[in-house]
Amino acid sequence: MSQMTKAEKPARTLEELERLAVGSEAFREGYEQREGMIRLGAMLKQMRESGGYTQEALAARTGMTQPAISRLESGFGTHVPTIDTVMRYMHGCKYQLIIGAGHGAGADSAATPLDFQAVF
User: CATH for 10-119?
Assistant: First the structure.
């Protein structure tokens, strides 16, 4: 079995994935379908790292496995995580999950005030 060259290694950041998407229609379509999960995974990884936890340490705190933590952070697992799984991860990092909803969709919606909000 041959070793991967640096150019063949899988992308590890959202920016690397976006660069790859430029040249492949199939990749771009798949990426667009998973974009929300990729962004969630990147956010979760930032939380873990800001708390100074390794994947192994967080797995021990949450009762999850290190591979499960890795899949969740990558956004490319075969299953979409449940809210309970995301809450468990976040609580392990000492964060709360806040879900909100506001009218509007698109680029301007980030500035839209929330009509509904729940803290878990």
Answer: 1.10.260.40
Question: pTM for the full model?
Answer: 0.69
Instruction: Give the integer Cα–Cα distance in Å for 47 and 86.
Output: 12
First and final CA of the chain: distance in angstroms? 47
Which of 46, 48, 39, 38 is closest to 75 using CA atoms? 38
Residue 116: what residue type? Answer: F
Q: Express each pLDDT in 17-73 by its tens digit.
A: 677 666 777 777 777 778 889 899 999 999 999 999 999 999 999 999 999 999 999
What's phi and psi for 114, nearest 5 deg? -80, 135
